[in-house]
Amino acid sequence: MSFKVGQKVVYPNHGIGTIEQIEDKQIGVISLSFYTLRLAATNSVVLVPVTNATEVGLRAPISSAECELLLRNLSDDFTSPAQDWKDRFKEFSEKMRTGDIFEVADVLKNLTYLSHSKPLSFREQRMLERARYLVISELAAVCRQSECKIEPRVEQALARACVKHERRPASARAAAGAVAGH
Questions:
Q1: Burial letters for 56-80: b for 16+ Cβ neighbours within 10 Å, e otherwise?
Q2: pTM of the model
Q3: Which of 18, 20, 167, 169 is most buried, judged by most C-beta within 10 A?
């Protein structure tokens, strides 16, 4: 996928940015084209080789239709993460690196749920904050709303997911108990 100057893009683990220019740079004897990307979060500039943009995970933001899908996804139940924090952190890190906002949203749901039951490690807390930022900032950019308007919607969706996740095991136990009682 190729991008144009002025186009909004998503850079994995850093969020929304804008392609400021496409320039050729001489690296040794080779001339390479780079996207010059300005990241919205930090106002920093990143150079991404045009030929590696897909491998790096540079992508267009989700569509406005996908915004509602993402919010619905955030409120859905989820599979419980690994109990061992090292396994969980590895799994979540891989999801974050994909740059896929739906994978990032899954990490956000899991870490939000875990944070309600126990204190997160420093690294998991940072990942939770990063995932929350990435989801809210992309939704805000695509929906053309301020982050402060999007954040409550995300928090409500996460609260619904946590409630569904809490109820699932209890309802499964109740169903198993009803079967055993007959």
A1: ebbbebbeeebbeebbebbbeebee
A2: 0.84
A3: 18
The closest of 60, 47, 56, 51 to 30, measured between CA atoms, is 51
In a domain, 3, yes or no: no
Q: What is the pLDDT of residues 10-21, one digit of tens each?
A: 998 899 999 999
Alpha-carbon gap, residue 133 to 139, rounded angstroms: 10
Helices (H), the chain: 53-56, 64-75, 85-98, 101-117, 122-143, 147-181
* Tens digits of residue pLDDT in 79-107: 888 888 889 999 999 999 888 999 999 99
- Residue 181 CB-density burial (10 A; 0-12 exposed, 13-18 middle, 19+ buried): exposed
For residue 116, how many other CB atoms are within 10 A of its CB? 10
CATH code for the domain of 45: 2.40.10.170
Helix (H) or strand (E) run with residue 37 in it: strand 30-39
Tell me the CA distances in angstroms from 21 to 8, 33, 36, 56, one per residue in order: 12, 10, 5, 18
* CB distance 83 to 48 below 8 Å: no
